[in-house]
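Consider the tokenized backbone below.
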């Protein structure tokens, strides 16, 4: 079975998926879910930037000693 079959999604499939999500979560809950998703992505990006910074700072501190 080819994976390419699952990757092709047309406009009707997007509409059906949107309607199902709307029915499951309701109109008021979707903005809250998207806000939570956005803040989670932002935290992940910030954490990955913080993870990179200490390694460069550590090298500078090691050279000072």
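A designed sequence for it:
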């Amino acid at each position: 079975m080819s994976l390419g079959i699952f990757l092709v999604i047309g406009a009707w499939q997007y509409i059906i998926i949107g309607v199902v999500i709307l029915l499951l979560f309701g109109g008021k809950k979707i903005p809250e879910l998207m806000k939570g998703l956005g803040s989670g992505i932002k935290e992940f990006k910030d954490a990955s930037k913080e993870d990179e910074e200490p390694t460069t700072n550590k090298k500078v501190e090691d050279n000072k000693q």
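The radius of gyration is 21 Å.
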